[in-house]
Amino acid sequence: MAKTYVSATINGESAEFLCETQQTLLDVLRDVIGLTGSKEGCGSGDCGACSVIVDDRLVCSCLMLGVEAEGKSITTIEGIANGDTLHPIQQKFLEYAALQCGFCTPGLIVATKALLDENPNPTETEARYWLAGNLCRCTGYDKVIRAVMDVAADMRGETVA
Amino acid sequence: MNYIDSSLKVVGTRPIRPDGVDKVTGRAVFAADTRASGMLWGKVLRSPHAHARIVSIDTTKAAALKGVFAVVSGVDFPEIASEEAFVGEGPMNFRDLSLNCMARDKVLYEGHALAAVAASTQAIADEALALIEVTYEVLPHVIDVEDAMAPGAPVLHADMFTSGVSPKPEKPSNIAKVVTFKKGDVEAGFKEADVIVEGSYTTQPVHQAYIEPHACLASYAPDGQVQIHTSTQGHFMVRAYTAKLLGISMSNIRVNPAEIGGGFGGKTLVYLEPVAVTLSRKSGRSVKMQMTREDVFRASGPTSGAAMTVKIGAKKDGTIVAAQQVLKFQAGAFPGSPIGPGCMCGFAMYDLPNVDVVGYDVVSNRPKVAAYRAPGAPITSFAVESLMDELAIKLGIDALTLREMNAAKNGTKTHYGPVHQNIGFTAVLDAVKSHPHWKSPLKEGHGRGLATGFWFNIGGESSAQVHVNEDGTVTAATGSPDIGGSRASIGMMVAEVLGVPATAVRTIVADTASIGFTFLTGGSRVTFATGMAATQAAEKVVEDLKRRAAQTWDIPVEAVEWKDGMAYPAGSNAGAFEPLDLAALALKAGRTGGPILAEVSVNAQGAGPGFGAHICDVSVDKETGHVKIERYTAIQDVGKAIHPSYVEGQIQGGAAQGIGWALSEEYIYNTKGQMENAGFLDYRVPVASDMPMIEAVLVEVPNPRHPFGARGVGEVPIIPPMAAIANAIRSATGLRMPDLPMSPPKIRAALDAAG
């Protein structure tokens, strides 16, 4: 089958790849480009483990075709930290023990980044509804939500008790 | 040594876990993230029928497709004799497991594997599966447990005769086993009772629903050496099962445990690994396999659904005098439901003179059940703790007081034999009584429920190594896959013994060829048993370091003291020497006996039982039937919290799974015996917006059989939620909901029936 040439920006760097038309962006990221931080938990857009940011929009990369990435800017979990400095969201997830198995964690962190980019001051309810598309089976979400609320305050320059 | 009363510097603190950075940056390597040179993709053909005879399988066209390198079916797998296996969690038969991995004559559930292919791409593998021609003779099927027990039900296994009954039945049936537990004289007990309550309850099968689907990468080399990278709770278990199912010696199989994306008991069996190895052997290439989410629902896990009756008799003052329970557990297509623990756990919280419990292990045309967090206990406890609530109401006694009056204590003889020792149930109930949640007034329209739970916790075989590296840093290795933060807790115990900060110890999970045998991660055993092995290994290293310091200073070893990560002369009589730290001692290792390390293997005994109590406030939307959890508090005796954050995390996560079990999760079948909701859209696990914060309260009654007093903590928290929520709904609405899940349609129907 003929492959399609695609040119995109991934984590701030220009990326070129060939993909089959039926391949999802998630397949491309994992199997063509080799960025395996985005996970496949369902393949149907229900679990959010494959969350990436495409041109400022949070999407499930399993629901988008690789060819649709043409000309787009994509941020994956591998692009969240600044070199060897963790993003405050990543640091806060560690401090709050907001992960156990860690499989849903990349998606949750990307989704949290998208949330705070759009709404730096979410209520707990807003955070819970925003992250409702990211399933976590280990934590019961308690420490995740606490980490998100705390890092949001930090990033606004506030300190919470 | 025992550190329970020592002042501790590391244990009990909350350092960042050693595998944390990898997991927040996407570096952590899970099974599906691995690749191999020349790798093929393996995929499985699964039965569309709930029950059918396989008349023929023609793989000719599939095998001829370009890009297909191997096609296998039942004929490619050795026949395995019926033999009980003690390899995984819960009862298992090697023959059944082999048949579950690859059907031979019959398919027994929708999703049952019957052939597999290996191809150069996933698309070609899918195409090849569609070219496999199977002729089925569809047979009548049976899904529900009581239907499967009825006379005239379709029989799954012609050679299955109920065990545990005398005389042996003349006809085969779907009842694999009957188990009974008796204490005292239950009939006499009920005669003494002033009040008797009875109830019938059902629970639905629920899936562990780990977010990571099963995945593995297998390679069978021409010299017979097998390498497997896999997502599992026990890589030694994978080695043992794969060796047995394929007739390969264990020394020829090396299993590397990948990071595991959740298990909860569901990754204590093999599904893909023997198939991947067989495909690799036939194709001469490495083969990667991963389940789809649909496969996970249809062909792995779940835990049993059940039909139960319970009867409890009490004196007017609340003293329980008799308790009786009948449990019918679905096992799925092969025997092995958690009926044993189901029979033991329901009444284990109470000190009861007369008890009679009967359990049935029943097969039907569903996926074979796998362990799920405290297997059996949540099911049986939903029934018992719901009925305890009814008893409290009938007697006019507060729900907590009734439980306090009858609570099991040290010395209570259980109905299944052992005497409770070193238990903290009373301390847990005390914590309920004094908790602000329990004391707070109930808000208008809300209801409050209380329920408790018991789990044995286990010990068993574990191995751990502690290495002092050439520069004095420390590596700890164990054979326990880490599903919830155990690398952190184990590293902390090692650091405490060595007297170094937690961050000075790097903990890893070693593969099957690199460390001694270690039983799988399950039964809440790792921090207890593997932690014990790691603690002892660290102690051996300290003894060795003291000896090396003594040799360096030329003084007796008794004159050396180890403190805060350094060897000191013990008092002025020992001589005046500068202390030697790990780095200094490591530097001298070549002159003091060579590399510094210890490996310890234990068969740990004395796992302290765990008890928990959950308090739940709900509101019920009478229009929609939706139940909202308004406040949730989970109190548990954890022995000693090594890393309190991850102990809380276990409790919060277990409670959340229980909330899903209570309110929304179930397998829905159509009339053909096919699952209709095999995806996360329709099989509804709790999402962030469904949940309140879950307050985890850690009660610490040390377990004297562990060096730091730890008890297992992972399983107890999934036991109380279903009854706690049912009791809260009863409190809010007056409705007793005996059937799970207590989903909006059921609540609506109950509200309508009540008028």
Secondary-structure blueprint:
The complex is a heterodimer of chains A (161) and B (755).
Chain A: E1 4-10, E2 13-19, H1 25-33, E3 51-54, E4 57-60, E5 73-75, H2 88-95, H3 105-118, H4 124-130, H5 142-155
Parallel strand pairs in A: 1-5
Antiparallel strand pairs in A: 1-2, 3-4, 3-5
Chain B: H1 20-25, E1 40-46, E2 52-58, H2 60-64, E3 68-73, E4 84-85, E5 92-93, H3 94-101, E6 106-107, E7 113-119, H4 122-131, E8 133-138, H5 145-149, E9 175-183, H6 186-192, E10 195-203, E11 215-220, E12 226-230, H7 235-246, E13 253-257, H8 273-283, E14 287-290, H9 293-299, E15 306-314, E16 320-332, H10 339-345, E17 355-363, H11 377-395, H12 399-406, H13 425-434, H14 436-439, E18 446-455, E19 460-468, E20 474-478, H15 486-498, E21 505-509, H16 526-553, E22 560-563, E23 566-569, E24 580-581, H17 582-587, E25 596-604, E26 610-620, E27 627-637, H18 644-663, E28 694-699, H19 721-733, H20 744-754
Parallel strand pairs in B: 1-14, 12-13, 16-17, 20-21, 27-28
Antiparallel strand pairs in B: 1-7, 2-6, 2-8, 3-7, 4-5, 9-17, 10-15, 11-12, 11-14, 15-16, 18-26, 19-20, 19-25, 22-23, 23-24, 26-27
Give the largest interface pair and sizes: A-B, 57 and 61 residues
- Radius of gyration computed on alpha carbons of chain B: 27 Å
Q: In DSSP terms, counting alpha (H) and pi (I) runs of 4 or more, how many helices of chain A?
A: 5
The total strand number of chain B stands at 28
Separation of termini of chain B?
64 Å
| Mean pLDDT across residues of chain A | 96
Total number of distinct structural domains of chain A: 2
Structurally, the number of domains of chain B stands at 3
Radius of gyration of chain A: 16 Å
Structural class computed from helices and strand pairing of chain B: alpha+beta
In oligomeric terms, what are we looking at? heterodimer
Detail the poorly predicted runs of chain B: none
Beta-sheet strand percentage of chain B? 15-25%
Given this structure, which CATH class of the largest domain in chain B is correct? Alpha Beta
The third-level CATH topology of the largest domain in chain B is Aldehyde Oxidoreductase, domain 4
Given helix and strand content, the structural type of chain A is alpha+beta
Order of strands across the main sheet of chain B? 3-7-1-14-11-12-13
Shape of chain A: globular
